[in-house]
Amino acid sequence: MRQTLPFWSWAAKRSRDAFRKQSKIDNYRSRAAYKLLELNQKHRFLKNGFRVIDLGFAPGSWSQVASRAVGSEGLVVAVDIQNVAPPQGVLPVYGDMLEPQTRAKIQDAFHQHRQQSKADDLTVDTVLSDMLHSTTGIRIRDHAVSMDLCNSAFQLAKTFLRPGGFFVCKYYMGSEEQEFQKSLMKIFKRVHVEKPKASIKESREAYFVCLGRK
Ligand SMILES: C[S@@+](CC[C@H](N)C(=O)[O-])C[C@H]1O[C@@H](n2cnc3c(N)ncnc32)[C@H](O)[C@@H]1O
């Protein structure tokens, strides 16, 4: 019975180590995979054939999860400031999401893919952002940097998402999150705040899961 349920629902001790151990067994690059698996199990924003942008992909476990979910008919474009090799089948773009030229690079990646696959439009179904700067421990500062990253991901989502599309965005809790949530609610039909089990309790990270781009 236990085997048929996902790991996070039966693991007695859902510690950072337990998730890390499991990620080795399941061949994921990090325990972060289980955060995305849990969010997707609940909200179904990754489907066969979907086109996905994964922001802040390194080391790559979200891209692995996304790529397995969308299959060979889909596409995952993964962006990071670090020059890390992407998982197999994932198209990498390297750049700083706070710099405007990175958006142009993402657009180029889609143009190239469109020429190769003869896809007729450049919209995507889902934008994921797990971007986070190394935290300093100074809460106000960590929150402010996280909100900048959220805003850049949101701008990109508004440019690329098809109507009905999905946006998942990590943030570091703090005073501006409600204002940001209000902006999300103007663009998406439903906005959920989630704290998956693989995200350790002490951490101040959480996720906005936005469904149905208007
Ligand atoms: C928590 S890690 C992401 C883990 C990843 N989702 C996974 O499953 O392996 C956060 C990532 O965000 C990236 N990042 C932080 N700031 C960025 C920026 N301004 N532009 C692009 N990527 C950024 C970091 O380099 C880091 O790889």
From TrEMBL:
rRNA processing listed as a keyword: yes
Entry superkingdom: Eukaryota
Organism the protein comes from: Schizosaccharomyces cryophilus (strain OY26 / ATCC MYA-4695 / CBS 11777 / NBRC 106824 / NRRL Y48691) (Fission yeast)
Sequence similarity: Belongs to the class I-like SAM-binding methyltransferase superfamily. RNA methyltransferase RlmE family.
Pfam families named among the record's database cross-references: FtsJ
Protein name: rRNA methyltransferase 2, mitochondrial
Keywords: Methyltransferase, rRNA processing, S-adenosyl-L-methionine, Transferase
Transmembrane segments: none
InterPro entries cross-referenced by the UniProt entry: RNA_methyltr_RlmE (IPR050082), RNA_MeTrfase_FtsJ_dom (IPR002877), rRNA-MeTfrase_E (IPR015507), SAM-dependent_MTases_sf (IPR029063)
Domain Ribosomal RNA methyltransferase FtsJ span(s) in chain numbering: 28-213
Active-site residues per Swiss-Prot or TrEMBL entry: 170 (proton acceptor)
GO-annotated cellular components: mitochondrion
One function term, GO molecular function aspect: rRNA (uridine-2'-O-)-methyltransferase activity
Keyword Methyltransferase found: yes
